Amino acid sequence: MSSASHHPSANQTAAGGAKQQLASKLASCSAYSLAEAPPPFLASASMAAALFSFRAAALAALLVAVMAACGARGQLQPSNASADSQERSLLSYSGGWIPAKATWYGAPTGAGPDDNGGACGFKHTNQYPFSSMTSCGNEPIFKDGKGCGSCYQIRCVKSNHPACSGVPQTVVITDGLNDKLRHAGIIDMQFRRVPCNFPGLTINFVVQHGSNPMYLAVLVEFEDKDGDVVQVDIMQHNSGYWEPMHESWGSIWRIDPNRPLKGPYSLRITNESGKQLVAKNIIPDNYIPNTNYRSYVQY
């Protein structure tokens, strides 16, 4: 065997370096919790961070968290186009497992504070389909709110602690090892992006408090596949054209055109892959704020 065969290629070296750089960024401010209920499970977030849906078979109440201050988003150094491209590749479905650090915080069965849905706007995260507890996430996966709803699989690494199986499907709290992990300090973990799947659910729209004839804000949730939304457009009654809505924060989109709006309203959502779905006349003209309007569409 030649000596060259013992060394990684330039592409392998670059990929490894990108993965370490991303892990370093993620270590600036992320925390994830796994739910006690069956999948899907979700890690919700404080207002300083993000809300993400994580899924793996029968994972349970073990917090896996990338450690550091949750306000560290502003401390991240700007990256060039090449580095951004590498990050997107690593956070794609084929990006593989990304290393990170984890620890436990908060109450073992806590569902998180009542903070208006965290930085993504998702509320009632302790209920189906999320059945989750609380965590925080940082910029590489928060994406200024565009990452809200993305799904990740998580596993802790057995080489760091004997209570870790290293296999996502078998990290199940049935034998009391959850207490050992909660007292284990910082442990190694890995995560990777996976397609979202909300069995039996279609995309849901929640009209936000404060909406009125001159202003409409809507939360979008439960999107299969990519799980996130990068654009929402609205068509008013008999207008015949789409108007762009603007991201208010997280997964909440608004339109405030300084003129009266007329329903019923159709909504068109675009996910990260560029696929669009239309929920026709989904929100009535006489909508009620804080009300769910369940569509018939799903990715």
From TrEMBL:
Signal sequence extent:
none
Q: Matching InterPro entries, A to Z? A: Expan_Lol_pI (IPR007118), Expansin/allergen_DPBB_dom (IPR007112), Expansin_CBD (IPR007117), Expansin_CBD_sf (IPR036749), LolPI (IPR005795), RlpA-like_DPBB (IPR009009), RlpA-like_sf (IPR036908)
UniProt keywords (A-Z) are: Cell wall, Cell wall biogenesis/degradation, Glycoprotein, Secreted, Signal
Coiled coil regions, renumbered to chain: none
One short Pfam name that applies is Expansin_C
Show the GO cellular component annotation of the record. extracellular region
Q: Which GO terms describe its biological process?
A: cell wall organization
Q: Does the keyword Glycoprotein apply?
A: yes
Provide the Expansin-like CBD domain boundaries: 214-295
Please classify the protein's predominant subcellular localization into one broad category. Answer: secreted
Q: What protein family does this chain belong to?
A: Belongs to the expansin family. Expansin B subfamily.
- Could you identify this protein by its name? Uncharacterized protein
